[in-house]
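Course assignment 3, question 2. Fill in each field.
Student: A.L.
Task: Predict the tertiary structure for the chain below.
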Amino acid sequence: MGARALAAIETATTAHGLTGVYYTDDAVYYVSDPDPVLKQYMYSFAPKDLAMAVTQLPSVSALVQHAGEIINGNVFSLHDHGELAAVREELAAKDLLHLSASFTNNIELIPKHVDKANAITELQAKLGIPPARTIAFGDGNNDIGMLQSAGISVAMGNAVPAVKAAAKYETGPNTEDGLAQFLTRYFKL
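Answer field:
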């Protein structure tokens, strides 16, 4: 993500009483102590069989020392979406990151010009799969680019309205095996 982006995130989140959470391939870092509920939420994503270090760093300077390892991050607000919106606006103005969200309580912090659409188009090119034969499923705003890169785009039943508008098909929600429902119908299994 880069040192400038990390410093900008920390400046914005600190000013609004929020916490940035940063990920490497095998570690999670943060500087300011998060809300206890958020801290529990952070640990809930760690696979049980994977020892992933979650470390509070003492300063932004210490965080920046890991800039080469950090691949993405999040800012969560479980209570105040106004503060989250302010952080998003400040970070967008800096134009150092790709900002997305999978739900209304977070900002996904991704290196500039990287998103799920990049991953889809790179896989299509490497594997020789044309967009018309690519299926993508999504439910959050962070899935829109990916859906636009796939010839067969499917919104989950629980998707936000913008995702449903971007998709060619809709299926049941993810809590009701919507993906399996679509594949069974599409391939007439």
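Instructor remarks: The chain has two domains: 3-111, 116-186. Residues 29 and 55 are 5 Å apart (CA to CA).
Grade: pending
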